[in-house]
Amino acid sequence: MSPTLVRHHLPNSGPMGSDDLPAPTGTKARARDWAEIQERMLVPLYEAAYDRLGVGSGTRLLGLGCGSGLALLLAAGRGAQVSGVDSDECRLELARERLTPDGMPEVTRLVSGGLEDAAVGEAPFNVVTAFHPVGCVSSEQGLTAALTASAGLAERGSAIVLGGWGPVERCATAGVLRVAQRLADPLRTAGGWRPSRRDDLEDLAERAGLRPDGSGRVACPFGYADLASAVRGLLSTGLFDAALEVTEQRLVEKELAEALHPYQRADRTVWMPNVFRYLIARTQ
Questions:
Q1: Residues forming beta bridges with residue 11, ordered by sequence position
Q2: Residue range 83-93: average pLDDT?
Q3: What does the pLDDT average to over 264-276?
Q4: With 0-12 CB in 10 A as exposed, 13-18 as middle and 19+ as buried, what is 77?
């Protein structure tokens, strides 16, 4: 099965000086910041889940919210056949670059459509991943619908991997992300970030009609070369989009930089230890 990338709209997921703040960024720039700065922070989560499941040459994997494709690339490096869906066209273009290196034939296809386009003419999937943490999507109802739909494309008993934040007290980034909550319109009911709850992943699996089959925790520290890189990386997650809709970008950047200052070390790098959870669920 050739790697497949499908555009899919999931149903409704010391402060720096002014000269140090990152320049305003658009959609393409933020997608690049995600790919080059932020996405790698979740590699320990990807690898832990792949190790747990023994992802390899017999794996047919579908990545929900695959972003710029790093998790797919790691799975493909283990011999898996991969497909991915995402609503962000810019991130998908970066995923294509990663999965189709220069000089190699075109092995990816980018289709504007729904989940069904990821499996047309192919064997059923036996692993589905949804690594984008609960609390970081615009609508958990939409994620539930996507999981339910993807389960219909998978073999019976296939593994569905859900990712999420660990306990708030073990996630330094949680305090920084509260800036997004504070700056966003308090009347908003969707979007942005919220603190994790103990049974988030189990509740999501139950709503999607999946059977829990084990879980784990993994350290995913967020480390950045400097404060400006940290601001760019966190803005690329989309968690601050709600705040940016109602607040000037430079104010959001300034508030974010101030929240990050306690995590800046003597060498000017930024380091925030975090723990993430993953749940392995099975299709019925």
A1: none
A2: 88
A3: 97
A4: exposed
Token reading at 55: 């992802």
Q: Which residues of 207-242 are buried (b: 16+ CB within 10 A; e: fewer)?
A: ebebeeeeeeebebebbbeebbbbbbbbbbbbbbbb
Residue 87 has pLDDT above 70, yes or no: yes
Check whether 34 has a pLDDT greater than 80: yes
Residue 21 pLDDT exceeds 60:
no
Question: In the prediction, which pLDDT does 114 show?
Answer: 59
Alpha-carbon gap, residue 264 to 271, rounded angstroms: 7
Exposure letters 91-122 (e unless 16+ CB within 10 A, then b):
bbbbbbebbeeeeeeeebeeeeeebebbbeee
Give me 263's structure tokens: 């995590």
Among candidates 122, 116, 126, which has minimal Cα distance to 156?
126
Q: CA 224, CA 233: separation in Å to the nearest integer?
A: 8
Please compute the mean of the pLDDT values over residues 221-232 and round it to a whole number. Answer: 97
Residue 24: its pLDDT value, please? 40
> What is the spatial distance between Cα 28 and Cα 155, in angstroms, rounded to a whole number?
36
DSSP per position, 45-95:
HHHHHHHHHT-STT-EEEEET-TTSHHHHHHHHTT-EEEEEES-HHHHHHH
Mean pLDDT of 173-192: 75
Nearest CA among 272, 48, 278 for reference residue 171: 272
